[in-house]
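Kindly go through the entry underneath: sequence plus fold tokens. Please state briefly how this chain folds according to its tokens.
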Amino acid sequence: MHIRETLEQMESEYLSPYAMHSADSKGRMKPEEQCDIRPVFQRDRDRIIHCKSFRRLKDKTQVFLSPDGDHYRTRLTHTLEVSQNARTIAKALKLNEELVEAIALGHDLGHTPFGHAGERALNDVCPEGFDHAVQGIRTVDILEKDGQGLNLTFEVRDGMLNHQTEGMPCTLEGKIVRFSDKIAYIHHDMDDAIRAGILKESDVPREITDVIGDTTGKRLDFFIHDLVLNSVGKNDILMSDETAAAMKALRQFMFENVYQNPKAKSEESKAESLMKTLYDYYLKHFDKLPTFLKLLVSKGDSRERVVCDYVGAMTDRYAVAQYEELFIPKSWHY
């Protein structure tokens, strides 16, 4: 069978000349035999979907810690929305959908429990610092599969590493995910904030809504259309100046009214304290870590980094359970 080769040939005939073609990948960290059916980026997507760190995203905070309602986003639903936005844009521009999907599904694998509160806590206590994008690469390179890693392609790893504002991916597909991440969280975090009663739609300044729309759905549609229309036929992913300015203003509005809102963030100091306590505990009781993590010290990693690997990989629920197990007295039974 030559199914993979046929699919690669279809890419070369259909995709934009600016697309990243599967056959042109720079390859993997460790050479391995190609799949006879799947091109490399499809294979990476499958590896990410089936890995443990992807499944743990379902119990990790997006913005609201342990919300009572059923419809608030988690880190997993955020990831799926980023993926859908990215695929829509990539398909319209004839770019590689499988590459954008793999990057999007993997972009937050390094996130901590309790969202950015957990990330801040580990960054504060670890001498080497902690960044979820860097940790995501460490997760897929080293930590997954009990130390074997997923051995993803260069292009997927590059997109994961550079999905934040300060990064710049080397492929157009990675640039799409970088934009899609911001579009997704602005869209759904406002939706969740309205659901929580923290915001009303009428609170959004008119100078913003006049440009990009007065509902979350209209804004999502507007951002995606603007990216597609300004990027078609170009070797770049671009927003119009007016839309970019409106997005910047909307992000600032969200930081002031949601991300730094005492009502939405009232529990974050507790989450940060919990994370720091677990970090200190496992640094002092390093022997309690899984064997494959302890072995990383013999390969050159510090104990501090390895403890971050363990604590940072926890879900919200597991971190709370560990804290209760270790520090909350239990009722005595005879």
Q: What stands out?
A: Residues 207 and 246 are 8 Å apart (CA to CA).
